[in-house]
Amino acid sequence: MATVVIMPRQGQSVESCIITTWQKKKGDRVEVGDILFSYETDKSAFDEPAQTAGTILEVLAAEGDVIPCLDPVCIIGEVGEDISALLPKSAEAAPEAKAEEAKAEEAPKAEAAATVSESSGERVFISPRARHLALETGVDMTKVVSTGPHGRIIERDINKALDAGFTATTEAVEAFLAGHPIVVEEEKPAAAEAPAEKAAPAAVDDLRAYTEEPMSNIRKVIAKSMHASLSEMAQLTLNSSFDATALMAYRAKLKEAGEALGIGKVTVNDMVLYAVSRVLPNYPEINANLIDNTFRKYKHANVGMAVDTDRGLLVPVLFGAEKMTLAALAAETKVLAGKAREGKLTPDEMANGSFTVSNLGSMGVESFTPVINPPQTAILGVCCTVNRVKADGTVYPAMGLSLTFDHRAVDGAPAAKFLKELCTALENFDLLLAK
Asked: What is the pLDDT of residues 164-175, one digit of tens each?
């Protein structure tokens, strides 16, 4: 019996996914566990394995299509099996479209000013939705560039041609879809004497040249979130710094003997995250989300860590970070950062964060204004160390911290107290470990 493969739901907040790559095509034989297609949520990437063996009888979506969760994507069954009852309405129209093609093939040739390409007669690969849009809008199909799998024309290809102003008659569209495109013969210029050969002009670099590419799905989500953050919050940033001498000394000791003790690699950022997790529970309004004038105050320090990836900025969450040892926290940050860069994070691993830490110190940034990750009420920016001189003339490494907070939720005094307490904890990191 044929099986409908649906778009999985990855997390409760995910409503749709985009198909990025088809690993199998219509007519392919698949076994249980074979990867059918790859897809993305707004922040993660996944592969969908076959849950049943059989032949792919129908593919219902193309690469680049945004598919609502739980909607059908393809059908697996045995060759010759009747799947008409399983096809969505758009796909059920395919037999009618084939009948239209047959009629178009028998139709007389178009007007005298045009001729029909007799050598064509090839099948046109086009999705049902793209076919319907083409017939409805009268797009010039000869100007459509296919970007779907295996040269298939999909809906976005039609829209791109329409945006460029390429239109034609409905008859021309029908003829193209039937495999007999109408080709308008262009007037040939009168023969002229061949001009004397001239030296080819030297190539000139076009100083106005550029390329265009659509904004990725994850970039759209980040843009929407950051715009909402700045337009809907009353954000204010406090900047401070602390003496990082003790922190750097402890870090050096860990590098020297940590692996021998089975602690593993611990970075400065891990140490900052550890200190944040110990201070954060003391400030309920900062360890919180503000949603529609309602505080969601978390019982644990669910600290988000900003990770730079090829696909954009992702923020996996260290749940219950205040309960982790430094070694356990450092190990978990490596796992989450790796999954983020590989596109393997699930939406649930990025939801319900109570606070975020963004570290640009490794890039030499001395101070910056981090933007709050909605609906959180604050975010900490970690900066690089710079040498400063004390009143007695001694030089020390000062590390900068930038705290941005939502003034609707947090007043300046408690935000400043949080920053001061965090600086004290980091200046006395070895003592913080004893708590």
From this structure: 888 888 888 888
Task: Identify the three-state secondary structure at position 3.
Answer: strand
Lowest mean pLDDT among 95-104, 131-140, 285-294: 95-104
Task: Give the separation between CA 176 and CA 166, rounded to whole angstroms.
Answer: 14
pLDDT tops 50 at residue 105: no
Mean pLDDT confidence for 405-412:
96
pLDDT classification of 188: cutoffs 50, 70, 90 = very low
CA nearest neighbour of 426 among 253, 238, 265, 278: 278
CA atoms within 13 A on the CB side of 352: 15
* Helix or strand holding residue 306 (H, E): none
Q: Any bridge partners for residue 4, and if so which?
A: 75
Q: Distance between CA 57 and CA 47 in Å, rounded?
A: 20
Q: Which of 132, 150, 227, 407 is catalytic?
A: 407
Q: Please give the full DSSP string across 49-77, using - where no structure is assigned.
A: E-SS-EEEEEE---TT-EEETT-EEEEEE
Question: In angstroms, rounded to a whole number, what is the distance separating the alpha carbons of residues 183 and 186?
Answer: 9
In the numeric block, which tokens belong to residue 243? 């003496």
Bridge partner list, 396: 388
Query: What is the DSSP code (8-state) at residue 151?
Result: G
Q: Which amino acid is at 123?
A: R
Give the pTM. Answer: 0.63
Q: State yes or no: is 407 an active-site residue.
A: yes
- Helix runs in 292-368, H state only: 326-342
CA distance 20 to 147: 12
Amino acid, single-letter form, for residue 66: V
* Sign of the CA dihedral running 303, 307, 313, 317: negative
Q: Which residue has the higher pLDDT, 178 or 143?
A: 143
* Residue 61 · residue 73 · CB < 8 Å: yes
- Among candidate residues 383, 377, 292, 272, the one with its CA nearest the CA of residue 333: 272
